[in-house]
Amino acid sequence: MAVPFIQSLFDRGHDYQTVSQIERGLPQSPTRLDKRYDDKIDQSQESCPRSRINPRIIADVTIGLSDGLTVPFALTAGLSALGDTNVVIYGGLAELIAGGISMGLGGYLGAKSEHEAYNAALAETKSIVSARDEQVISQMVQSTFEKYHFPPTILDSMTSNLLAQPEELVEFLMRFHHNLADSDYTSSRALICGATISGGYFVGGLIPLLPYLFFEHIQQAFITSIVVMALALFMFGWLKTSLVGETNRWICLKNAIQMTFLGGIAATAAVECVKLLGG
Fold first, then answer.
1. How many C-beta atoms lie closer than 10 Å to residue 140's C-beta?
2. Alpha-carbon span 208 to 186, nearest angstrom
3. How far apart are CA 84 and CA 149, in angstroms?
């Protein structure tokens, strides 16, 4: 994987402007690089189908739903010991609203901090490139490819090639040296993260609460809530595995069982803690 990438860097001497035009959607005349660039895209699309949903969004949904399916369930299970369905419903709804807001704010602030850290790294990288500090840049490039054990002559040639293209050098250092992709740190990321986690928490917590809305006897509602929560955990474990592109049913089944088992342990532990505190 590394050798074709290094070879492509050497070819940028007279073709780099053409690559930039292709990426920006500007008109250009057909060249040898155009055909190679298009062939690489076609091969990538054929051999590596992309996931339809951003993995980071799936991670946010997982955080929200997993917490929502366990924490409110433990609360409603503890409140069900009082024997009053209304107390369970209103207490559960209050926890859902407060927990959803809290989880959403946590996700928003966390993603915002990541965005600020990305901007700080970007500003520092631009400053280094603008100063044309070849020694520092050379060290950064060498540390990036240190594990591949390339000869110093190749790394020096690569550094010289990149220094001729400051904008591309900044992008190269951000993506390969800092391992930070700009698409993961957009300004809207914080809002999307907060809304996704908050919504996932509310939906996940509402599922085990629904039986208390339809059953008069609280014991029946509690048992039904356990069954519904287990089914929801199983379905969610299967769905989130398939959404990331996994087609093996056994792996989907294993992850679904794992999600159900871990969620069940968390919910059981929470319920037992409530019972111990209640004497």
1. 19
2. 35
3. 69
Cα(277)–Cα(167) distance, rounded to whole angstroms?
A: 60
Distances (CA, A) of 245 to 53, 58, 204, 235: 9, 12, 23, 16
CB atoms within 10 A of CB 234: 19
Closest C-alpha among 35, 64, 82, 96 to residue 192: 64
Please give the Cα distance from 192 to 195 (Å, whole number). 5
The pair phi, psi for residue 98, each rounded to 5°, is -65, -45
Task: Select from 92, 65, 76 the least CA-distant residue to 222.
Answer: 76
Tokens standing for residue 226: 């356990």
Q: How many residues does the chain have?
A: 279
Nearest-angstrom CA–CA distance, 41 and 48: 10
Q: 208 near 229, Cβ under 8 Å? A: yes
How far is residue 99's CA from residue 66's CA, in Å, rounded to a whole number?
A: 13
List the structure tokens of 46: 């054929």
**pLDDT (tens digit, 9 = 90+) per residue, 83-129?**
788 888 898 899 999 999 999 999 999 999 988 988 888 888 888 88
The letter for the amino acid at 41 is I
CB-CB contact of 234 with 260 (8 Å)? yes
- How many helices (H) and strands (E) in the chain? 12, 0
- Say how far apart CA 243 and CA 225 lie, in whole Å: 26
- The answer to whether residues 172 and 158 touch, using CB atoms and an 8 Å cutoff, is no
pLDDT band at 13 (very low <50, low <70, confident <90, very high): very low
21 class by beta-carbon count within 10 Å (0-12 exposed, 13-18 middle, 19+ buried): middle
Residue 105: name the closest of 193, 188, 189 by CA.
193
